[in-house]
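Standup notes
- DV: blocked on the single-chain target, sequence here:
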Amino acid sequence: MWNSVFDFSSQGVQYSPFDERSLLVDISSNSLISCTHQCTTIPRCRTMNFNGQTKDCRLYEGDSGTTGLIISSVSPTVYGSLVLKPKNYLNYGLSCSFCLKDRYLTCTNNSTCQCHIHEYFDGSVCRSQKYNGSSCVTNVECRQDLNLTCSNSTMQCECKYEFRMIVSLI
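- DV (later): unblocked, structure below
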């Protein structure tokens, strides 16, 4: 059994992701409570924007600490974020029997409880992996599925491949 705790902003504040790929779903919802409930049903959901006027509910896998900013909004939007608590990650690294139906951890390779896709374990909680240009210390912090690694020279997530064009003239 798990509990999800969310912090909410006042109206006129919203989450703005660095990359729209962090958007999980954009749905209509009757209330902030309903929008929050939708987020709790998707384990990768960390952040949400709810517009009370348009009933727009946008659910994101990222969070303001790693994958976006909190900005002012002229619309009556409310930003909500999942509160990450170390106690929700106590089963990290244990056998899968400890994380069945767990909102915070997932069973990987029928072996151990790990962070969800696009997350990394920082020693106490699973954090969202970062996008291009975000500060980092290790490669695991960067979105490796987007070919990002932590550059030793800039300490930022950067593309690890150089693309070169070869042109031959005949």
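- Follow-up: Residues 86-122 form one domain.
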